[in-house]
Write a structure and sequence with these properties.
There is one protein chain. This protein has about 240 residues and is mainly β. It has helices at about 50, 60-65, 105-110, 160-165, 215-220; strands at about 1-5, 10-15, 20-25, 25-30, 40-50, 70, 75-80, 85-90, 100-105, 125-130, 135-140, 140-145, 155-160, 180, 185-190, 195-200, 205-215, 230-235. It is built from 5 helices and 18 strands.
Length: about 240
C-alpha cells in the first residue's frame, strides 16, 4: 500500500466540447476546462474509476489507476495505460455502456512497433495529433510520434528538447506526467507535478509555441480545490 501527493496522471479530451477526463491514478474528474481561461469547472467527481466505469472495475485500471491516456479519432474511444498494460476503451459518453474493446494487454501487443523502445515498458503521457490517427507519446525525456491505425507505425523518436523546442529550458524537457489535446485545433495541455503548460503545435513541423505556463493552483480554479490527492493505491493483486 502506498500513499503520496498525486496530481494529474493522465487525461484525454471528450467528444463533448471543452470537456476533459482527468485522472489522478485511480480517481478521476470530468472537467470543463474553459480553454485559455481561468474558469475551469469540475462537472463530476472526484470519484473512484471502478465505481463509475463498470468495465474498469476489478481491472488494473480501476485498482492501480490510469497513468496515461489519449483519445482516439474514433469518437468515444480512448487508449488507456497503466504501467506496461494498455486497452482500447469505449468510455460511454455519460451512458452505462462503457466497455473494453481490446485488451488489457501489453503495450507491445497493442502497438508492436514500440517493441525495443523506451515506450514498451510504460508511457508517461500522450495526446492525439490533429492529424487523423496520429498521437504523441512521452516517456522520461523522450518523445515519439506514432500512427495508431490498423497499419500503425513509429514515425519518429527523439528527445523532447529536440522535437519540442518550446520546452527547452523548462521542467517539461525532462519529462511530462500527463497531457491532452485541446478542442482548439493544434493546441494541447501538459502537466508535471503542480505545473502545467499550454502549447500550440503543427504536426510534422518543429514549430511549436509555449502559450502559457504556471502552477495549477493559479490557473485551474476547479482543479486547485482538489489537488493534490491523497488517494491510496493497493498493489497486492498486481505485482
Amino acid at each position: 500500500m502506498t500513499s503520496s501527493d498525486i496530481y494529474v496522471t493522465a487525461a484525454f479530451k471528450s467528444v463533448r466540447q471543452n470537456e476533459v477526463y482527468i485522472f489522478m491514478q485511480n480517481e478521476y474528474v470530468l472537467c470543463d476546462y474553459a480553454p485559455g481561461k481561468k474558469y475551469d469547472k469540475i462537472l463530476y467527481g472526484p470519484a473512484h474509476i471502478g465505481a463509475v466505469f463498470s468495465s474498469l472495475e476489478c481491472t488494473i485500471f480501476g485498482e492501480l489507476g490510469i497513468t496515461c491516456a489519449f483519445a482516439s479519432h474514433d469518437l468515444g474511444i480512448a487508449y488507456i495505460f497503466s504501467g506496461n498494460i494498455c486497452a482500447k476503451w469505449y468510455y460511454g459518453l455519460y451512458s452505462p455502456n462503457n466497455k473494453i474493446l481490446e485488451g488489457p494487454k501489453l503495450i507491445v501487443e497493442m502497438f508492436p512497433f514500440l517493441n525495443g523502445t523506451v515506450f514498451a515498458n510504460g508511457i508517461d503521457a500522450a495526446f492525439e495529433s490533429s492529424r487523423p490517427f496520429e498521437a504523441y507519446l512521452f516517456k522520461g525525456d523522450q518523445c515519439a510520434r506514432i500512427n495508431y491505425s490498423a497499419n500503425g507505425q513509429l514515425i519518429n523518436n527523439a528527445p523532447i528538447r529536440q522535437n519540442w523546442p518550446c520546452f527547452k529550458g523548462t521542467i517539461f524537457e525532462h519529462g511530462i506526467d500527463a497531457s491532452f489535446a485541446s478542442h482548439n485545433p493544434h493546441q494541447a495541455y501538459v502537466f508535471k507535478g503542480d505545473l502545467y503548460a499550454r502549447i500550440r503545435f503543427i504536426p510534422g513541423v518543429r514549430f511549436d509555441v509555449l502559450i502559457s505556463t504556471g502552477r495549477i493552483k493559479d490557473y485551474w480554479m476547479g482543479l486547485q480545490r482538489i489537488l493534490p490527492r491523497k488517494n491510496t493505491i493497493y498493489c497486492s493483486n498486481y505485482n
